[in-house]
Write a structure and sequence with these properties.
Length: 267
């Protein structure tokens, strides 16, 4: 797996209909889509969820290869989840060897869990791929603003979440640079047993931590130099207003959720 395969937190520039949607609509749609994935319990429901996601990908004009590249870093997690569910769930035995048994229920659960994780990751990544970081911050803050009445720091929470997402690609690029520099000095990260590979990562982790603190300090100094004061009398250059396309997208998404719920009830 290459560092460049990590697409989480990246923004893919574009002018598609999805890119132009209000960030509040996209955030809520993403949250409800994740909830819908856990409501689905059969192949027909997953087919509906996959079809809806495919339609959004086509409209967003984000290359499918770029989106699927983001699955590589979590391939091991998906594989581990698949294996655990396949062997740990009891039921009607399909295959038996040594102390292991693959049951019909375990195989079904494993396949459903793998599909659910893949759709969840792709659906979540579309949010950051089609939304600028500053728009994402404003959208999260707007959705959390009702909780200000009970003392929740909505702006600060939104800013922290967005900065964390935004700097994932930056730290990955920094890690790639450090690894290449260490390899040029003769470091070997591929050969040896697991313990040897873990020890070989130490020359990467130390410079990475130092670089992360340096980036954080530079960001803090830049924000302070611009007299950033959080949510104190803060204005926006571009206000958020729901347009007709946002209403249309919301209606389409309500229809999608209705199809998911209706299919679950009927089946």
């Amino acid at each position: 797996m290459a560092i460049r395969d990590i697409t989480l937190g990246q923004y893919y520039p574009g002018s598609s209909w999805i890119h132009k949607l209000d960030p509040r609509v996209k955030i809520m749609a993403t949250i409800l889509y994740i909830v819908a994935l856990f409501v689905v319990q059969d192949f027909i429901g997953f087919a509906i969820a996959a079809a809806g996601l495919a339609a959004v990908i086509i409209v967003s004009k984000v290359p499918l290869s770029f989106i699927l590249r983001g699955l590589k870093p979590v391939f091991l997690i998906i594989s581990f989840t698949l294996i655990i569910n396949m062997f740990m769930i009891k039921g009607e035995v399909l295959v038996s060897f040594w102390i292991f048994e693959i049951t019909r229920e375990g195989l079904r659960t494993a396949i459903f869990m793998a599909i659910r994780l893949i759709l969840l990751i792709i659906g979540s990544s579309l949010l950051t791929l089609t939304t600028k970081p500053i728009s994402l911050t404003d959208g999260i803050e707007a959705l959390l603003s009702p909780f200000k009445r009970i003392g929740m720091p909505a702006h600060e929470l939104a800013m922290m979440m967005t900065i964390a997402l935004r700097f994932i690609p930056t730290l990955m690029e920094e890690t790639d640079k450090i690894m290449k520099a260490q390899q040029a000095r003769g470091a070997d990260f591929e050969s040896g047993n697991l313990m040897s590979r873990a020890k070989a990562l130490i020359p990467i982790l130390v410079p990475l931590f130092i670089s992360a603190f340096r980036i954080a300090q530079d960001l803090a100094m830049a924000m302070e130099a611009r007299c950033y004061g959080g949510n104190i009398k803060r204005t926006r250059m571009n206000g958020m207003k729901l347009a007709k396309r946002d209403l249309a997208a919301s209606l389409l998404y309500v229809a999608f959720l209705a199809a998911i719920v209706l299919q679950r009830i009927l089946m």
